[in-house]
UniProtKB/TrEMBL annotation:
High-level lineage: Bacteria, Pseudomonadati, Pseudomonadota, Alphaproteobacteria, Hyphomicrobiales
The family this protein is said to belong to: Belongs to the universal ribosomal protein uS17 family.
One Gene Ontology CC term in the entry: cytosolic small ribosomal subunit
Description of how the protein assembles with itself and partners: Part of the 30S ribosomal subunit.
UniProt protein name: Small ribosomal subunit protein uS17
Record Gene3D superfamilies: Nucleic acid-binding proteins
Amino acid sequence: MPKRVLQGTVVSDANEKTIVVRVERRFTHPLLKKTVRRSKKYHAHDEANVAKVGDVVWIEETAPISKNKRWTLVPSA
């Protein structure tokens, strides 16, 4: 099964080797037919501490690394 990859914005890099990424999704409300924005925060593993607050990054699903971390930073090419 392929790993999920999400795009989001780094909102915190205070912890060592960990970043918090806010991922936003947009969908049409079933009744009101308006576009609705919902966001969720994911903890991701950043081995080299390269991501900074405000960066747009890609994160990839991975095996559990810690209690909260199930995602890892995709290295930019």
